[in-house]
RNA sequence: GGCCCCGUCGUCUAGCGGUUAGGAUCCAUGGUUUUCAUCCAUGUCACAGGAGUUCAAUUCUCCUCGGGGUCACCA
């Protein structure tokens, strides 16, 4: 059974990059009937906040990504880590290092001056003398000093590191006893049963260190899959400064979960020429071996297109439900179907759709000057007048076709083109020349409101 | 700087030795629409560069260049 995880440190909101790796992990677990678990890496007390954890959970909730089982909090697992530290100490696989911070700094400076790689020199590796006074020792793990470390990565292939290039006896527990990241990650991933690690490739160079821990503890290695970064337009790592990268901001902007997820799954992953993926398809088609090796640039053009696509192809029930989040309650509107059918073709976002609905539903109180100038030429008022009377005379006006028939009748009677009626009528009804079909608008707002808007326009003396 | 990763249209990508290098998006044009949007059609645009290997390289190898990541008692 595949068990994947998402392991954010709660220092901020969930952003696009994190969401994508979470999505990949989720999909891969679901495809295999496995589990997708959540671990909050909250060991850095100074930078963590509970709000951040809640924000992440909220985002998952919005997107419908459910994690399996209880959430693991690293801050509650000190006992576990302490146990393994002791074990490694007892087995002689780790040791106490009494080097002072000053000495360590000095060592590094010397190495830098000599253009050498900065690394711990192993001074206390085999120390059995009397430890210096007044130093709280750190615990260092005995890492291999030579040989190859090969990360068999599911995305990148075999990545070969030389121990002497990258390793030293790194710290697994600080002077105050607190364990370090690379140590706890290995322990938690193993204890949580995670056998498929999917994470950003900024972790690739951490992996050998974690492998040292796995090795020392005798844990079997999981499958690593390092997915490439998402870069901003400038080609740099996506940061919070690159606009609205908080996932919940996309909700505010009117994006649907389906569109956002579809957009993200195609960033760094593809399945032939397919662009549109339902959640079911994503789950069945996704496989980490198909993840790209190269970083991609974050560009929302396609997200907009996808969002429009999903809005157009949503049922009106779904849309009405989604629109309640944008302050629009349509359940009671008797022309809801016509309203949404005609407007959902025209909106790129739910927010836009909501404002489109409001525009149609509210009586215009001002008229766009350019539109007025263009539409109100000779005879426009007369045409509006006649149209208003014709509407008034009609008993049965319900559907767009009913209103269309009225327009057609007037055009024939007055021997004028359709546009002669449409232009001024459009301004009267909507306040401007662009917008949805007039037949639909009138059917939606009804006979009374139509007549009111026509009368208003005539009175306004345009 | 050391180590590691990456390099196909502006962007997301297909390609896995022989293709007119495909799709999507964006942009432009035309059609549909009384308008706008949608929709449909068409078009512009790419293998970073150089050496090899090969009958044949976008595809394999090496080098160069370019971009990114990482080098903590942060995660």
Number of domains: 3
Which overall shape is indicated by the principal axes computed on the Cα atoms?
elongated
CATH top-level class of the largest domain: Alpha Beta
User: Roughly how much helix do the residues carry, as a percent range?
Assistant: 40-55%
What radius of gyration results from the CA coordinates? 32 Å
Count of discrete alpha- or pi-helical segments spanning 4 or more residues: 19
Strand order of the largest sheet: 1-2-3
How would you name the CATH homologous superfamily of the largest domain? HUPs
Give the end-to-end Cα distance, rounded to a whole number of Å. Answer: 72 Å
- Report the sheet with the most strands, covering strand number, pairing sense and barrel closure: 3 strands, parallel
- Using the coordinates shown, work out and report the CATH topology of the largest domain: Rossmann fold
- Which strand-content bin applies to the residues? 5-15%
Give start-end ranges of low-pLDDT stretches. none
Q: What is the name of the CATH architecture of the largest domain?
A: 3-Layer(aba) Sandwich
Average pLDDT figure: 94
Number of strands: 12
